[in-house]
Amino acid sequence: MKLFVEPPKVYLHRDFVDFRKSINGLAAIVETDMALPLMSGALFVFCNKGKDKLKILFWDKTGFALWYKRLEKNKFKWPSKLSSPTYSLSEQQLDWLLSGYDVVGHQAITFESVVL
Fold first, then answer.
1. For the residues 109-115, what does the mean pLDDT come to?
2. Whole-model pTM?
């Protein structure tokens, strides 16, 4: 089932969020911490410290909606070691995250020389 069909953007908030926050608290994080346009139609993805719950905040042209998912036995592969506090995901990466896959994968590394 496709819940979010062609969202304009998907943003992941890297840091864990207190899940007592609801729409107003998460909207404040989008505006202050992420500095992103709240009513753009983009999806904003948040995770709790235990990595077993996700919230997705979005504006659907008539008001805010909040989607919530709780895993019973597993944890989301949350990319908490990113250098940026906000990470942009593709729609496919969001599907991977919701399905339990790592959305970031291996990070590129560079070498000045391969000879040690």
1. 69
2. 0.84
Q: Could you write out the DSSP letters of every residue in 43-112?
A: EEEEE-TTSSEEEEEEE-SSSEEEEEEE-SS------TT-SSSEEEE-HHHHHHHHHT--SS-SPP---S
Higher pLDDT, 116 or 70: 70
Residues contacting residue 76 through CB under 8 Å, at least 6 positions apart? 47, 51, 52, 54, 97, 100
Q: Which residue has the tokens 């989607």?
A: 67
Element (H, E) at 30: helix 23-32
pLDDT score recorded for residue 2: 58
Question: CA 46, 58, 72 angle in degrees (round to 5)?
Answer: 40
Distance CA 6, CA 53 (A): 23
CA angle 63/96/34 to nearest 5° reads 45
If one compares 114 and 101, the residue with the highest pLDDT of the two is 101
Whole-number mean pLDDT of the chain? 86
